[in-house]
Amino acid sequence: MKKRYIATWLLTFALAGCREEFLTVIPETALSYGIFFKTESDFQQAVNAAYVPFRQMFNERAWVLEEMHSDNTYYARNTLYGAVDPTENVADFAVPTAGGVTANDNVLVQYRLNYQIIARANQILALIDGVDFAEASKNNLKGQALFLRAFAYFDLVRLFGKVPLHLVPVVGREDAASPLAATEEIYAQIEKDAKEAGALLPNKAKQEAGRATSGAAKTVLANLYITQKKWALAEPILKDVITNDGYSLMPEYANAFSTTTANKNNAESVFEIQYMEGSAGYNGNQIYRFIPSPISATEIAPITGTSNPQATSQESNNIPTPDLIAAYEAGDKRKDASIGYVTLSGSLAENKVYPYIKKYAKTHSLHNNTGQNWPVYRYAEVLLFMAETLNEQGKPAEAAIYLNQVRTRAGLAATKATSQATMREAIFKERRVELAFENKRWFDLTRTGRVKEIIGAYGAKVKANPQAYYFPKGAVPPPNAFTVLDDYYGLPAVEAALTPHF
């Protein structure tokens, strides 16, 4: 199958100003729904556009809200640069929230990007059945739109609990302000969309690389059931993915992740965000957002491999914590594949050696321009989902079969857990190291009800020994650090100003 990158198509859907059709004149030079959505090609372009917000989301915001807002990574102070409060507050569990809303910019942008996906999917789903073209292609495009809407709502409901539920295109200001839907209502819609997407989409072998597949839709559905603790519903879905969808673990953990130009959408990939190095505008720059700073050109050169390495002095985001580093067992191959170390000669910290996320440090050509894909769901997580699902139904021995597949690839011995309780903890710990830096930890803490327990203890350690968490000598966390231990973020204050509903 010919491999193409999902292109960026910026669609502007103009609204007609008059209701009487004979008074409505649509300029032929304007791209609008009055002249668009007439052909298969139009819907292909519209589906491409629905993927586009993912690139910004996973490059800039998702890791802030879903990984650095945990005990896996932290915001390492670079006092030469100064704090970037919205990001620092997320890492410090000190997001200012009042009346259920927050002005934090990371929250606002993530919220809006998800609704961009939803709005574009809604437009496709509202019109695609009214246009005649090949059924197989229509099912594929419709399935992708349903998957994207389900995925976006799943992210929103796990971040906020309750959000507006838009299922048809918004045609005016009156429609834009929608009441908050109950969490269970949103779950029900995600379930409906993911089920339908799974039935319509082709599997990995038949789908164009990089697009949603039936396996990806079923994995979202299983994740939803696991979040709801509907274990008996999750099991057959996961069994179907494992048995019928053609995924397998890459022999080496390090090779489960793409380079900047190759190994994309490999045998282990269930769904990943597509990036392309170069000048076309499809690139990312995650490693530059994560790299400890201040770093000299000489220090950054071995990490990025570019021909034009440049020094940076910025905030230091997503730095692996001592807690995560200690979670790896001796001999675990995943540790060296995931975490590297760099000495920052210009750092004001006494210990100038910093860990960084090696998983995304792939050699590339130009400074601040990378092309490695971002893993969203991997087959390893499917196996861990199955282990958890079986264990929660009182089958720890069966769960061990799936858990041990992941451990064997990591170079570790079989788990010693035998009871449901010990197996539960073993799976929880395995998820942490297997899926480190893939935006899973925060959701694992919330769905298991362990935020206050784990983040409370983690915060106490940070405050007791700031230098161990990358603070320069004499610097300490702010007074409000680790005071907001809620399972959900406040809704965006900017959006709250536009609606009477929150």
Describe the protein in words.
The protein is mostly helical. Helices cover 45% and strands 8% of the residues. It has 19 helices and 11 strands. The strands form 5 sheets. A 3-stranded mixed β-sheet has the order 2-3-11. Helix 1 (40-51) runs antiparallel to helix 4, helix 2 (53-66) packs across helix 4 (105-127) and helix 4 packs antiparallel against helix 5. The chain is globular, with a radius of gyration of 23 Å. Mean pLDDT is 93; it is low at 1-25. Residues 347-477 form the RagB/SusD domain.
Offer a concise description of the structure.
The chain has 502 residues and is mainly alpha-helical.
Please estimate the helix content: 40-55%
β-strand amount: 5-15%
Spatial shape:
globular
* Element-level helix/strand string: HHEHEEHHEHEHHHEHHEHHEEEHHHHHEH
Give the structural class: mainly alpha
Question: How many helical stretches?
Answer: 19
Runs in which pLDDT lies below 50 for 5 or more consecutive residues are 1-25
First-residue to last-residue Cα separation? 47 Å
Integer average pLDDT: 93
The total strand number stands at 11
What profile does the largest beta sheet have?
A: 3 strands, mixed
Strand order of the largest sheet: 2-3-11
Query: Using only CA atoms, what is the Rg?
Result: 23 Å
